């Protein structure tokens, strides 16, 4: 995060915008921390030297050193240590730097929000979504929005962890994500609002001539995942792979994962030629599956994912609300009620 260009101000920077913090059980007394020093520590962590920080921020190296020494005296703790390659943060320095990263992200986001508004007003919305959502109903919704309003939506394909990161870093305005019931909810900043749209059941993708598929044709009962324990497995993205492992372990086995791809058609081709089986979402099957494959319901209460819409709480633009409402309305044709 760059600071104002007045070098004299930089040289004499002090704690004009102090934030009081109360120390924890380590024995520190109440101290004051300048938000700028937190960002400076984040820059030291990121860039690895005072000189690099000085070049990027426009501050002088003595001013940076003076700021850090002042906080070290107040906290009675070393924050930076020199190495043969430059400088690195101590554990306490890294703790403070994480807060500096959050501050830097928010200020960067504020600048981007203003720039975006100045370029496009309040009607340009950057949406990120996973492949299965992009290939099912979102495209139709975007066409409808473009024909019935002046809202312009830019769509980018991203898996949930990357989507949450894009929101946090100000690279997206809203996101459609999924959360597997077998896994902990995705972590995100407190300023994000997550609105569930519906439930997307998971299915076992397998060759139509496989004994498990033939058994399902006879019984029409959801399949026990353990019946596929001897199969090789094709995993998806990292989150999808974690879900596969969690469901398999709950069923009493560890899956032998031989391939990994987030391309649904590549997954189908691998299953078709006998390279393994996979877990997919029912939403993904709306794009079609090959005739010699079968997508079977799974007998597990955790075999589903929840599809959600995520925005920043402070973003109250009508265009964001319109995009959310239109996508939610369309999703009801594809998702089950929560």
UniProtKB/TrEMBL annotation:
UniProt-listed InterPro entries: LysR_HTH_N, LysR_subst-bd, WH-like_DNA-bd_sf, WH_DNA-bd_sf
DNA repair in keyword set: no
PROSITE patterns noted in UniProt: HTH_LYSR
Claim: Membrane is one of the keywords in the record: no
GO cellular component: protein-DNA complex
Keyword tags: DNA-binding, Transcription, Transcription regulation
A Pfam family hit: LysR_substrate
Entry GO MF terms: DNA binding; DNA-binding transcription factor activity
Family the UniProt entry places it in: Belongs to the LysR transcriptional regulatory family.
Protein name per UniProt: Fhur3
Species: Bifidobacterium pseudocatenulatum
């Amino acid at each position: 995060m760059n600071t104002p260009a007045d070098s004299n101000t930089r040289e004499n920077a002090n704690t004009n915008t102090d934030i009081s913090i109360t120390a924890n059980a380590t024995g520190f007394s109440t101290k004051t921390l300048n938000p700028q020093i937190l960002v400076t520590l984040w820059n030291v962590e990121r860039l690895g030297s005072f000189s690099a920080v000085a070049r990027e921020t426009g501050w002088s190296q003595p001013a940076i050193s003076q700021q850090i020494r002042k906080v070290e005296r107040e906290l009675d703790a070393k924050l930076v240590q020199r190495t043969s390659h430059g400088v690195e943060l101590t554990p306490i320095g890294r703790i403070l730097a994480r807060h500096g990263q959050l501050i830097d992200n928010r200020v960067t986001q504020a600048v981007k929000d203003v720039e975006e508004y100045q370029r496009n007003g309040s009607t340009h919305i950057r949406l990120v979504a996973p492949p299965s959502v992009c290939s099912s109903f979102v495209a139709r919704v975007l066409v409808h929005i473009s024909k019935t309003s002046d809202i312009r939506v830019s769509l980018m394909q991203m898996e949930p962890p990357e989507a949450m990161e894009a929101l946090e870093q100000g690279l997206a305005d809203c996101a459609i994500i999924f959360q597997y019931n077998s896994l902990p909810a995705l972590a995100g900043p407190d300023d994000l609002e997550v609105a569930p749209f519906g439930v997307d059941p998971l299915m076992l993708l397998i060759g139509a001539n496989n004994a498990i598929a033939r058994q399902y044709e006879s019984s029409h009962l959801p399949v026990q995942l353990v019946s596929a324990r001897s199969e090789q497995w094709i995993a998806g993205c990292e989150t999808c792979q974690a879900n596969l492992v969690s469901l398999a372990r709950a069923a009493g086995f560890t899956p032998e994962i031989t391939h990994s791809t987030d391309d649904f058609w590549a997954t189908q081709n691998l299953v078709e030629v006998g390279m393994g089986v996979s877990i997919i979402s029912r939403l993904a099957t709306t794009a079609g599956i090959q005739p010699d494959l079968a997508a079977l319901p799974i007998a597990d209460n955790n075999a589903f994912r929840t599809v959600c819409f995520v925005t920043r709480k402070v973003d109250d633009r009508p265009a964001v609300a319109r995009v959310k409402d239109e996508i939610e309305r369309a999703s009801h044709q594809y998702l089950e009620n929560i």
